[in-house]
Every structure is written in C-alpha cells, then in structure tokens.
Amino acid sequence: MSGKRTLLEIEDLRVGFRTQDGLVQAVRGASLEVAAGGALGIVGESGSGKSVAMLTVLGLTRGPTAEIAGEIRFEGRDLVGARESELRAVRGGRIAMIFQDPQSSMHPFYRVGRQLVEALKAHQTMTRTAARERAVELLALVGIPEPRRRVDAYPHEYSGGMRQRAMIAMALANDPELLIADEPTTALDVTVQAQILDLLARLREELGMALVLLTHDLGVVAQVTDEIAVMYAGEVVERGSREAILTAPEHPYTWGLLRSIPRLDRPRREELVPIAGSPPSLLAPPSGCAFHPRCPYVREAHRRVHPPLDPAPGAVVHDVRCLLPATTRRRLWRELAAPAEGGAR
Amino acid sequence: MVTYILRRLLWAALLVLVVSFVTFVIFYALPSADPAVLRAGARSGNHALLESIRDTLGLDEPWYVQYAKYMERLLLHFDFGFSYRTDAPVREQIFDRIPATASLVLGAAAVWIAVGIPVGVVSATRRRSWIDRIAMGATLVAISAPVYWLGLVVLYLFADDIGRFPLFKGSGSYVPLTESPAGWFGSLLLPWLVLAATAAAFYARLLRGNLAGVLSEDYIRTARAKGLSERAVVWRHGVRSAITPVVTVLGLDIGILLGGAILTETVFNIPGVGRLAFSAIRGADLPMIQGTVLIGALFIILSNLVVDVLYGFLDPRVRIG
User: Which residue, among B210, B226, B244, would best test binding to A if mutated, counting the most A CBs under 10 Å from its CB?
Assistant: First the structure.
C-alpha cells in the first residue's frame, strides 16, 4: 500500500450458495484491498474462493441461491447492495474482467470486432464507424498483428494466445480503472503465458490501471504483481508485499505452495513437495484453523481456535492467519528454505 | 458454395431415383388391389374391358418396363403420368393442392414459432419458477395429444357447425387465399392451432433445454461482465446460440409437412396434398402415389439442403468453403 488511494476494498466478504446438500461457503470472510494503479495477486487452489470473491465484486454471483454478506467498496461506493443497473455500469466500464479459457469466453458466432464494438457501445454512445476504429486500435494495443484485417475474423480463426489478447482488448474497451484477470494464462502454452503476462504488466504501466490477478501459480504473480494475497478455503490466510510473501512467508500453506514450484536455483535431485491432503469441503469447512487437517505443524488447539488475520510482528505490510508463534514460524521457514540461500527467486 | 449446392442437388436427383424405385417395388411386391379392376368398377366381370384397360395403362407389361417408361417421362418431361382412376394428369393435381397444404403448414409454423420460442426462453431463464412449471406441464400435455384427437375435440368445442361454442369455421370450410383472404384466414385458424400445438410444445422444450445449457457457457459470463443488459445477454448471446438446432428441426418439420399434413388435412377436410395421397393409396392409384411420394421426398431433400446452407450462416465454424 504505497500511500496511494484505495480503489477496491473488500471487507469480511461472505458468499455462500444454497444447494440440496446445504450451504456451500465459497468465501468465508475475505478482506482485501487494491490501491489505484496497484497490482494484487490472489493465489489459491481451485475452490479457494478467489474467483467467487472477484465475480461477486462485479455482482456476477448474484442469484436466487446466493447469500452475500460483507462489504465491497469501489471508489468508496458500495457494490454489495448496489442496484443491478449501477452494477451494470461498473461491469466492463470501471471494472473489467477476463477469464481463464479464451477458447470458450468469446461468443463463437460473432466476429471479434463485433464483440469489441458491443463492449464499447454498452458504455459509450458512439457511431458504428468510430466504434470500429476504436476496436482496431484496441487490437493493435494488445499486440495483434494486422488488426485491421483481424477485426473481421471469428474467434475460431484466432490462436489461443490471440484470443486471450482479444479478450484483454475487449476488457480495456472502456478504459477501466481495474482489470481482474482470472487465471488468464492457465489454458495457454508456456511461451504464450509469458507473453500475456508481459502484456498485462505493460498495459498496467501504460494505462495506469489497477490489476487483480487470480492464479494458482505463485510463479505467475511473482512476475507482475506487487502485492500478494493467499487464499485458502474461502479465507485470506496471508497477505503482504510480493517480497514478504516470496522471501519470508509465514503461513504453512504458503510454504507448501512455494515448495511445490520447480525451481532452477535448487539442485535437480531435490524433490518437489506436494501439499498433503486435498482442499477441504466448503459444505462443512474444518473447525478452528481451516488448514489444520493438512498442516504438518498442527497442534491440538488449532482444531478449535480460529486464527485471526494478524500483522506479522515487525513487518510493515504483512498479515498472516496462523496460530503458531511468530518465532516458531520464522524458524520453520528458515529450515525449509535452507538449501538455497536467500529464499525464493 | 455454389459447387456445394450443385453437388447436393445431384445427390437429390439420385435420391429421387431411389425413392421412386422403392415405391414401385413396394407397390408391386405387396398385395394390393388390381388397378384395372378398381377402374372397371361394376363392370369388372368384363374380361375384354379389363384387358383393354391394362393395355391402355400399360399394366400388362413387366413392372421394370413400366418403371423405365415412367422414369423416362418423368426425367425428360417432368411428367408424372395420369391417374389410374380419373385420367387426370398427376402433376397438375398435386400442384393444384400444394397451396392448401402450404397455407396450412406455413401458417402453423408461424404459430408454433411465435408461441414455442418465447415460452422456451422464459422457461429457460426462470427455471424451476412457477411459470416454468406451468409451461412445461402444458407442453407435456400438448406433446401427448395426437392431432386427430385434438382436432376433433377442438371441432366439437369451437366449430361453427357442430361446436358447443361456435366461434370459428369448422371442417371443410377451406377457401383459397386468392379467393378471399379473410375467408382463408378464418377457415385455417383452427387447423393452424391444432397442427401447431404439438410442435410449439416440442420447440419450447427443445429451446428451453438448449438455452439452459448455453446460459452456463463461459461466453455468457463474458457478456455479463461486459455490462450488457440481461435482455441482450439472453437474446443476443444466449438465444442466438440455442436457436441453431431449433432452426434445423424447423426446416425438416416444414419439409416433411409440405409433402402432406395427412392427419390435419383429413380431420379438417382441407384439400391438400396429404388427402390426395391418402385417397391415392386407398384406390391403388400408382401414378398418384408415386407423384405424392416423390413430391414429398423432394420437399424433404430441399428443406435439408436449405437447412445445411442456412447452418453455415448461423454457425460460422461450420461455414462451407
């Protein structure tokens, strides 16, 4: 939080969906902040609640079975209780969102240009020719070669990377202040992934917009974000500056995430360590610390006491939701990180 | 595209050949009344007369010679021959009756689209609501009601001659459009509703299922994230996708029915192709049977072609080069 004004503020957000089996608690009291022009990476496995939380920002989880509580403020305005028409003005206007699979995220029957024009016209009154011109500009902005020709192509005539670029172009149509990218590179080839991340970083810089990047891959957030929040079972378990999370993580779950990434600076024979167990059921989340069933350092009290998200002692921008004493946490991480000097990357 | 259509038309010609051959074989292979006897009527005891009828109609020749002669006339002169029973030229007989069948079928199609599609959309967007439950219950009833039953019930209730509530024109009141547009409309109102009922219900269910699936697609979420109104999301993005299979079925349904909506035409006594075919079958009138079967096949083939070409326009991914 570099002293800039807060753009998006999520406080104690709770999102549940009523099903035949009971209430699925997708988000259980998440609190997050995004500064204007800032870049936040939200890391978590599928089912950690990161997508649901961000879809809720746009009001896209509303429905007859949804239960939403807590606060979402965007530029000071409440979005949880906002009317549908207000939300519609925000969606694709002030806040834009792109999704994981560009293959299925564009309508297969409409030309790319037409879908861009549609995004423009949803928020601005402009002539058809002006909108089309702007569509070509946007395609050029995201690095699509020959945009004037490609604007009339159908999505299936684009490659996967180009489709994601086109999705980004569509998201940028109305100069949003915040772009939410939900696993934008997961469905792409590795080489294309890097290009898309570079593009997002460049656009953020050029356009001065804030970025929220959802991913399960800490390596991805390391490249483009300056703050990181780690989500587990619908809660934020750790958040802080990129450096803090990558070099001095304090939550055992974050350790697990870091140690399950292959790294070049480690000896080859060193094995990757998967996190034991599987993500918890959100129908009946674990008691106490949500991570306790999978935590190698679990103690008896952790099964009963629910840890608060507390500042890590001595750190400036670093909160952690863990019951282990800070000194113990730091000692454990030093031991885990020992083989390679200096921690992550 | 043009070569594609030409190739399809060539296949169509081949198919007509096969269909006509099969009809011929069925007619001669299965026990049927002797056309000469039927034609001679009361004088069928007169052997000389029967012989002369057989000679005139060419019935004394082997069936394959008859078939060859028939196909020669058909292919070279588009001549369907003459009715065994009335000597009337088959082609003109059928063409005279196409307007009635087309009026019935196209009008009914307009009704079932106008009813089926909105019902399907409303049901899909409000699934499990009371309005959806009522609509789906009603469609189940409509799908289960056969045309001949529904037609008779409707006549019994509303026909101006036998009905309890004589509101509409009843059976046998058909007036050509060229004669009196108002009379035409009035006489076809009940047949349209009856023929459309089952189809409307079927289309509503088909669209509901398709649209419910489409609305959970990723690109629908994208459309919402763009800030489009819910109506634009449902119609421009949802229905646009969900309608393509419906268009396919619509083309085929219209094609099949244009060859004769036998049940509806019979119940409402509409002089269309279906009733012509029905009486031809009863009278062992081979040229007329052949004619109606071939025309029916032709409609189905053409509607198939139209559907396939249209599909390319509806779904750019399957566009034909």
Answer: B226
Helix, strand, or coil (residue A181): strand
Q: What is the 3-state secondary structure (H, E, C) of B200-258?
A: HHHHHHHHHHHHHHHCCCHHHHHHHHCCCCHHHHHHHHHHHHHHHHHHHHHHHHHHHHH
The answer to whether the CB atoms of B226 and A90 lie below 8 A apart is no
Please check whether residue B235 touches A, CB under 8 A. Answer: no
User: CB-based contacts of A226: which residues, under 8 Å, 6+ apart?
Assistant: A2, A38, A39, A40, A241, A242
Cβ(A276)–Cβ(A296) below 8 Å? yes
Dist. CA A123–CA A117, nearest whole Å = 10
- Window 18-57 of B: residues touching A by CB (8 A cutoff) are none
- Residue B31 has a pLDDT of 65
User: Per residue in A235-267, is it b (16+ CB within 10 Å) or e — as a string?
Assistant: bbbbbbbbebbbebbbbbbbbbbbbeeeeeeee
Given a contact cutoff of 8 angstroms between Cβ atoms, the answer to whether A285 and A303 are in contact is: no
**Using the 8-state DSSP alphabet, how is residue A293 labeled?**
G
Per DSSP, the three-state class of A91 is strand
Full set of structural domains in chain B with CATH: 2-90 (no CATH), 94-314 (1.10.3720.10)
User: Do B283 and A120 meet the contact criterion of CB atoms below 8 Å apart?
Assistant: no
Question: Alpha carbon A239 to chain centroid distance?
Answer: 13
Category of A173 on φ-ψ map: left (φ > 0), alpha (ψ -120 to 50) or beta = alpha
Would you state the structure tokens that stand for residue A209, as one six-digit string? Answer: 């917009």
Q: How many beta carbons lie within 10 A of that of residue B281, not counting itself?
A: 16
Q: Give the strand pairing for A66-74 and A6-19.
A: antiparallel
- Enumerate helices (H) and strands (E) in chain B, giving the number of each: 14, 0
Report the C-alpha gap between B66 and B70 in whole angstroms: 6
| E-only strand ranges, chain A | 6-19, 22-35, 39-43, 66-74, 77-78, 95-98, 178-182, 210-215, 227-232, 235-241, 310-311, 318-320
Among the ranges given (B4-13, B146-155, B209-218), the one the predictor scored with the smallest mean pLDDT: B4-13
- In the DSSP assignment, the letter for residue B82 is B
Q: Which residues contact A53 (CB under 8 A, 6 or more apart)?
A: A10, A13, A15, A27, A30, A32, A42, A231
A27-39 pLDDT per residue, tens: 999 999 999 999 9
Chain B partners within 8 Å of A58 (Cβ):
224-225
Say if residue B123 is exposed, middle or buried (CB neighbours under 10 Å; 0-12, 13-18, 19+).
buried
In whole angstroms, give the CA distance from residue A97 to residue A152: 23
In whole angstroms, what is the distance from residue B135 CA to residue B120 CA?
9
- Span B113-136, pLDDT tens digits: 999 999 999 999 998 899 999 999
What size, in residues, is chain B?
321
Reference A295, options A268, A322, A330, A326; nearest CA is A322
| Whether pLDDT at A175 is above 80 | yes
Q: How far apart are alpha carbons B18 and B10 in whole angstroms?
A: 13
Q: Considering the entire predicted model, what is its pTM?
A: 0.86
- Test B227 with A91 for CB contact under 8 angstroms: yes
Query: CB A108 to CB B316 under 8 A?
Result: yes
Identify the bridge partners of residue A15 per DSSP, sorted by sequence position. Answer: A27, A68
Q: How far is Cα B256 from Cα B253, in angstroms, rounded to an integer?
A: 5
